[in-house]
Amino acid sequence: MIAISAKNLTVSYNRKPAIKGINLNIKSGRVIGIVGPNGAGKSTLMKAMLGLLPVDTGEVKFFDKPIDSCRKKISYIPQREQFDWDFPINVTELVMMGRYAHIARFGFPNNNDKQIVNRALEKVGMYDYRKRQIRFLSGGQQQRIFLARSLAQESEIYFMDEPFVGVDAKTEMAIFELLKELREAGKTILVVHHDLAKVKDYFDNLILINQTLIAYGETNDIFTRENIERAYGGKLTILQKTEELVN
To answer: Does the global pTM surpass 0.70?
Structure first.
C-alpha cells in the first residue's frame, strides 16, 4: 500500500526555491531516511508534506487522501530546538498532547487516555519522570518524551526531524529499536538524518535530495558513491568518509 504520495512538490522562500519538483511514492511499513547536505531542503520537504508550509506547486496525499482528512494517523516530531522547553508543563502533560486528536473538543482525558500515555512513557523509559517539569530534562530525555507523545497518538505515519541529534548513545539505540518495532507493526516512519555512517543500519529506504530529488529507493541501491557525489556536489571530505560506507 502507498502510504504517502507527493507529486511535483515545490516550495520557495523569498521566491528562491528550497525544493523543486519532488515526486515520491512511499510504501507502508518502511523506515525511510531523508538525507542530503545542509540546505538541501530535508526539513522543508518534511514540513511541506505535513502541510506546515505553503507550496508553490504540487500535492501530497496520505493513503490517497488529503492530510486534513487523516491527521489523526500522522504524528510529527520536530527538531528539539523548535520547542519551548521553558513552557510550564510536566512530562505527562506534554505526552498527553498526543491524545488531543482523540479527545472531544472541550473534553478531558479519560482513563483510557491516561493509560495510553503511561504505556508510552514506559515504552521510552520515562515513566519515572512523568511528574518532572520538562525544563529539567536532558537532551536525550526530551527526545524520548517527544517519542512518547507520538506513540500516545497511535499514528500510522511518523515524521521525525533529526531525532538522533544531541542524544546519548543509549537513547539513540533506544530510538532505533523503537523504529524497528513500529515498522514491524506496519507503521511508516520518515526520518530527517545527517549521519551517513548510520544510513545502512537504520533505513530500509532512502530519499536523497539536494533541492531536487537525487534518488529514492532501497537503501542498498541508493547509497552509492555516484549518488552521494551528485547530492553533495563532489565535496571531497564527504566522499572520502563515504567511500568505506558504500562498499
So the answer is: yes
